[in-house]
Design goal:
It comes from Henosepilachna vigintioctopunctata. With 305 residues, the chain is mainly α. It folds into two domains: 2-80 and 159-300, no CATH class; 83-136, no CATH class. It is 55% helix and 8% strand. The chain is built from nine helices and ten strands. The strands form five sheets. The chain has a two-stranded antiparallel ribbon with strand order 1-8. Helix 2 crosses helix 7. The structure holds zinc ion (2 copies). One zinc ion binds at residues 129, 131-132, 142, 148-149. One zinc ion binds at residues 143, 145-146, 150, 156, 163.
């Protein structure tokens, strides 16, 4: 009886924590909606005629892309890992009864011999997730927040309450890009008013909101552009944030150099082959997130062991 009650308490507590994780998402959405409302009011008060139409059209287009990308990056869920990576109950039992680590490694090696795996652990063993009871595909990592293994995991982001991964990296990159463009646009079109009001110190009503919007755009733009530049670097190198901190270990018998297959191909790996869809948050990423093309060492580059 008491055990049941404590289990219920734990499950309620976990559910409560899961709800709390949506607070940063609500905050970010609130800021975006606030910025939209204030900007529209400000533009309708300060401009008229064709100028107003141009300002509003550009703003609505940029912010529509921001909202669309943000929604896609939040809602995308990591693709289910194929059944062949999951240990069957008899093999899992065998693993649980193994006498030592060497025997565990042998069982996993035998199990994964036909799987498309090029990476391994530092000690040469097969990458395995004890929580999900499955062999991890290349570039896949277990996320403790999402409580599952995530294909081509980049990082877990609290602002989207989701992992940035194979399923939504394109959307995440587009979201950062449109957010930077949106911030620059807001800074440019509110600069004169913001600067004047700040200098004279006469802030009241909507004017105060415009100045707040200006400074919010400066702060947000600065932090986002830093993140965007870093992800441009990762995109060019075909690396994830995790891999930039800890290089993947390739099987020594494969002579693999890296996932960097040249700028154009690296870009198309994430954005797909159709240039008309590159700017839209529509899923066009190549592959299934399980097996990735690699660059091999040239014969003269093969490191001597
Ligand atoms: Zn896992
Ligand atoms: Zn996660």
């Amino acid at each position: 009886m008491s055990n049941d009650t404590s289990d219920e308490d734990i499950s309620f507590f976990r559910q409560f924590i899961d709800y709390l994780k949506w607070i940063p998402v609500l905050m970010a959405t609130g800021i975006l909606i606030w910025a939209t409302v204030i900007y529209m009011i400000s533009i309708s008060q300060r401009t008229e005629g064709i100028i107003k139409i141009i300002f509003v059209t550009i703003f609505v287009t940029i912010f529509f892309m921001i909202y669309w990308s943000y929604l896609r990056v939040i809602c995308a869920r990591s693709t289910e890992i194929p059944e062949e990576f999951k240990l069957s109950p008899p093999i899992h039992k065998e693993l649980a009864e193994a006498k030592n680590m060497k025997q565990c490694h042998e069982i996993l090696k035998e199990f994964s011999k036909n799987l498309p795996i090029k990476c391994m652990n530092l000690n040469g063993s097969v990458r395995y997730c004890e929580k999900c009871k499955q062999v991890k595909p290349d570039r896949c990592h277990h996320c403790s927040s999402c409580k599952t293994c995530i294909l081509k995991m980049d990082h877990h982001c609290p602002w989207i309450n989701n992992c940035v991964s194979f399923a939504n990296y394109k959307f995440f990159f587009l979201f950062l890009t449109y957010l930077v463009i949106g911030c620059i646009y807001v800074i440019c079109t509110t600069f004169s008013e913001g600067y004047t009001l700040w200098k004279t110190g006469e802030l009241h009503g909507t004017s105060f909101q415009i100045v707040s919007l200006f400074f919010m755009a400066v702060l947000l733009g600065f932090s986002t552009i830093t993140l965007l530049v870093y992800h441009c670097y990762l995109l060019v190198k075909n690396e994830t944030t995790i891999e930039s901190m800890r290089k993947p270990v390739f099987r020594s018998d494969f002579n693999i150099k890296s996932y960097d297959i040249g700028f154009k191909q690296n870009f198309c790996e994430v954005f797909g082959n159709n240039p008309w869809l590159w700017c839209l948050p529509i899923f066009t990423t190549r592959g299934e997130g399980i097996d990735f093309p690699v660059e091999y060492f040239k014969s003269e580059e093969i490191p001597l062991v």
